[in-house]
Amino acid sequence: MIKHNCLATLLVGGLLAISQVAIAAESEVPEPFRNFDATSVYTIDYSDLNAFYNALVVDVGRSNRELAQSTAAKTGTRMRNSVNKATVNEGNRFLYELFEDNENNQNLLAAVQNNLEQIPSEVSLEYFNRDEQLAYWLNLYNVTMVNEIVKVYPKKNLKKFLLGKNSILSKKILTVAGVPLSLNDIQFTILKQNYDNKPLLMYGLYQGIIGGPNIRKKAYAGENVYRSLEENAIQFINSNRGTSGRDGKAFRVSSLYQRNQGYFDNFEPDLEEHLLVYLEGDERGELKTAKKIKTDINDWTITDLFGTHTELGGSMANNSAALQGSMRGGGSDPSGVLLAKSPRQNRYSEEMLQNLYQLKEKQDNVKEQNATVTVEEMGQVPADPVEEDEEINN
After folding, report:
1. What pTM was computed for the model?
2. Is the bond leading into 30 cis (omega within 30 degrees of zero)?
3. What is the spatial distance between Cα 345 and Cα 177, in angstroms, rounded to a whole number?
4. In this predicted model, what pLDDT tens digit does every residue of 200-212 receive, in sequence order?
5. Contacts of 251 (CB under 8 A, 6+ apart)
6. Which band of pLDDT confidence, cut at 50, 70 and 90, is reported for residue 97?
């Protein structure tokens, strides 16, 4: 193996402000997150996260672009929930209901996030290739978003949660390898600069709302991370929450694109080109003939199953079979995984651990000569000091 590559050029990026539109400040990728090993075959295991997602995510499948039927108010009330009939039955759901007033479940979810957060302190990200690093950042972002939404649940509308002056996206709620990070730091600094500002990245960042990209039933993995992102892009773009050509003169798209316009240098032409890569059906022709693009499709409703809708008997409450019938996998007891004593497990292969420990021993032996261990000597990149009797578990 050759010595691991280093990202030679640091692109000048910007952290987006609360609106995710205006550039607030320019920042470089923090040093611990710049480098990578293009030849690395090491992977991070996400068995705990996969168990959570498999049990708690409801996959509703591809949108058929049908509008939800109107529902009558239940007996005893004249009130109905206000829902967007074009989008109410779209988008995967997460069983936030199982975390409301349940401290044990909340603590287990927080532990999964904490374990992911600690990975770069145990094994530096530079030992992994770029795809494996991308999967890590997407998984950390998404489980953190879920964890933060659990804290405010059963809040139904998440617009202020995401875009208000106290936006969760701009708060330094993570510490990774000793570096305080916000979710915006991950998206608009680390991912933007390390991955050439690819628009596909936005579809991997779960926002907790129907009008955003799907949460998946499996964690992202380096071996197929881009294929998974493309699947999310196809599902979002070919849905009422993503695009609509019904206007005639204007082609309507999600406000997600306005909030992420930094991905598109020449906004409308570049966005059109991007959408046409994945857009299917009649909407392709409607986009090509439209005179302009309007970014005015919104649905800020939380992606719980139907807990925030049951009280008044709105569309989701009376139409829950449409979602429950779409559940794929997870068994009959979706909360069963939460009964586990701990979500911790070994994320690294025995081969990787053995090599890291051997490298640590070699580093100790040459420490007095102030030498460095090269890839050629050990067959992999140098490791940060690790206690010899410490197990790298997470």
Report:
1. 0.77
2. no
3. 20
4. 999 999 999 999 9
5. 243, 244, 245, 283, 286, 287, 290, 292, 293, 294
6. very high
